[in-house]
Write a structure and sequence with these properties.
Structural class: alpha/beta
CATH class of the largest domain: Alpha Beta
Order of helices and strands: HEEEHEHEEEEHEEEHEHHEH
Number of strands: 13
Helix content: 25-40%
Number of helices: 8
Distance between the termini: 46 Å
Strand order of the largest sheet: 3-2-1-7-4-6-5
Number of domains: 2
Length: 273
């Protein structure tokens, strides 16, 4: 069995590599249970228990299901595994979620109770900034403060402008994403069409263009004629950012980041836009 020190070292390594996992922790037990409070397991997105242990078949299935769901939507889960008679006393059914707790029936002979907290640990969302405009430079500088991993996609000659980027790409072809991705095109006339074509070809939660609505419409018409699917073009946000009355590159970058935070948290909370 993996020691706590080894498990924490393993988790640190996975965080540094931006690899997703869930940490399941037994927070309470009643009566006879295989695992006791404090037991932990590190679970991969496919349900593999990479390290640790939180009990046998009585707890394993429900915990792995909760881990997969938590990694899918980014929300933690609290699972309470109890004998059927105790669930009846509480007035809940197996599989029911009430006040943030999912209740599961313990069919094992031990008839113990286990409460397990499942926490997803996900890679930082990636912001791909395409272009080397003053707004792009400001975005790359500010975005890490809002929890984004930043990839600057610009010609190699402009890479010196982006000291704060986590990753660099020569041109408009960023490397594969390890987590959720957001894209902002801020080319300011230097390769607008090429950057938008590349951006709309990526799998991203949000793609935005820094420029006027009229310019974006003109470019969209050219892209539509070139065969870019209408659904992709309809999803393009232009102009980028919330209307804060921004004027300077830094203010425009702030308005864009405000919009990205809104989209990111709305997705996590399941709110209606």
């Amino acid at each position: 069995m993996t020691s706590p020190i080894d498990m924490f070292a393993l988790m640190d390594g996975m965080k540094q590599k931006e690899q997703p996992f869930a940490l399941a922790t037994v927070v309470r037990t009643v009566s006879v249970t295989a695992a006791k409070a404090g037991a932990k397991a590190l679970i991969l997105p496919d349900g593999t228990v990479l390290a640790g242990w939180i009990g046998g078949g009585c707890a394993r299935g429900a915990t792995l299901k909760a881990a997969r769901e938590a990694l899918a939507d980014g929300q933690p889960r609290l699972v309470s595994i109890q004998p059927e008679d105790l669930l009846e006393d509480l007035g809940v059914h197996a599989g029911e979620t009430r006040e943030g707790v999912r209740y599961v029936s313990n069919m094992c002979p031990s008839k113990g109770t286990m409460d397990i907290f499942v926490e997803p640990v996900l890679p930082r969302p990636e912001l791909v900034v395409m272009g080397a405009s003053p707004v792009a430079v400001a975005l790359v500088s500010l975005a890490p403060q809002f929890g984004f991993s930043v990839t600057a996609a610009a010609p190699a000659a402009d890479h010196a402008k982006f000291a704060g980027a986590d990753r660099m790409a020569d041109g408009f072809a960023p490397p594969p994403a390890s987590g959720p991705r957001f894209v902002v095109v801020s080319t300011q006339g230097a390769g607008d069409l090429a950057a938008l074509t590349a951006a709309l070809g990526l799998e991203a939660r949000h793609v935005a263009f820094v420029g006027s609505r009229r310019k974006a419409q003109t470019l969209s018409e050219k892209l539509r004629a070139a065969g870019v699917p209408p659904a992709r073009l309809d999803a393009l946000k232009a102009p980028a950012g919330l209307d804060l009355g921004a004027i300077t590159p830094e203010e425009i970058a702030l308005s864009i980041l405000a919009e990205l935070v809104l989209v990111r948290r709305r997705d996590q909370r399941g709110a209606v836009s």
